[in-house]
Amino acid sequence: MESSNSDNNKSEKLSMSQIRNKLRGYETKRWQQSRGKYLEFDINTTNKFKKYYVDIASINPDGEDGMGIDQLEEPFISLGLAYNREEVSDLIRSVDDDGSNRIEFDEFLRIIHNKSKKKAKGNEKITNFFKSLAHDNISNESDLRHFSFKTIMGILRRSNLLKAFLAEDKKEKEEGEKVLKAFSTMLEKK
Questions:
Q1: Which of 42-46, 76-80, 82-86, 121-125 has the highest mean pLDDT?
Q2: How many Å apart are CA 29 and CA 155, to the nearest integer?
């Protein structure tokens, strides 16, 4: 009897507006689930993705929420996803759902699961990069899943830059040279 009295007190504490909002939230979730649009992750998956997100955001912390151009310029250029600061900015805007010019954690999760609200042509590069990172498939050459993002980027950057000098395939060598030139230009500007 006492527990039902306690339950009544809890429900009395919610205003009608709060109850309506909760019901609206449940309805929205059900509608999204029925159309395959609701993102829900188990705690282990969320924690794994959060680890990568925090690693990326800590590269060059500026005190703001999310990852901006300062955190993503070097990795994106050294991986050949972009070749200058403006292209990095364009990539960020292509997946930035709220217009903040930053990629927050919820946007990061939507990118990984192809649920980004922005379906722009050209954002495949950033989507594929984050999906590969989150699914431990960032390199075909090495098993990098136990390393931090910063270490992974160092390994991949070195690999991409060496292609400019050592690649036997002409297309790979040209891509390596392009990445080397873009990376050098970025470093000169800093």
A1: 82-86
A2: 41
The residue with tokens 């010019």 is: 101
Contact assessment for residue 88 and residue 186, using Cβ atoms and an 8 Å cutoff: no
User: DSSP alpha helices (H): ranges in 79-123?
Assistant: 85-95, 105-112
> What is the DSSP annotation of 30-51?
HHHHHTT------HHHHHHHHH
Helix/strand/coil for 103: strand
Condensed to tens digits (0 to 9), the pLDDT of residues 71-95 reads: 889 888 988 888 999 988 988 888 8
Pick the most confident of 9-23, 90-104, 136-150, 173-187: 173-187
Alpha-carbon distance 17 to 63, whole Å? 35
pTM higher than the cut 0.70: no
Reduced to 3 states, what is the DSSP secondary structure of residue 67? strand
Which of 124, 122, 155 is closest to 138 using CA atoms?
155
